[in-house]
Structures are given as structure tokens and as C-alpha cells.
Automatic annotation (TrEMBL):
<keyword id="KW-0614">Plasmid</keyword>
<protein>
    <recommendedName>
        <fullName>Toxin-antitoxin system HicB family antitoxin</fullName>
    </recommendedName>
</protein>
Amino acid sequence: MQQRLEKPTLFEDKHSRLKALAQSRGIRVNKLMEELSTLALAEFDAQIRFQALAIQGDVAG
């Protein structure tokens, strides 16, 4: 028996709000998601760097 794979979807409300945000910026939802993921990764990298410096006790960076 073969399973049917479906694309993961966002709740309709969230999708429509993301679409409105993307349209307000003049970009497509995929581009918006790319930009948001870049911001999330930059925040994560900063958090990891901060934690590493805190472990070392380096306040100057």
C-alpha cells in the first residue's frame, strides 16, 4: 500500500497573514520565509556566541 505524501501546510489564518505581510513588502511568501529564516539563524548564532563567551567569562567579546 502506497502512502500519499502531502505538502505540509500552515493554518489558513497564518498563511493569509504571512501573504499579507509579504505583499506589503512587495515580495512573495517564499522570499519572506527566506528572510525570516535568515533573521532566526542570525539570532541563533548570536545566542550561541554569547553562551560560548559567557562560559569563557569573556565580557569584551
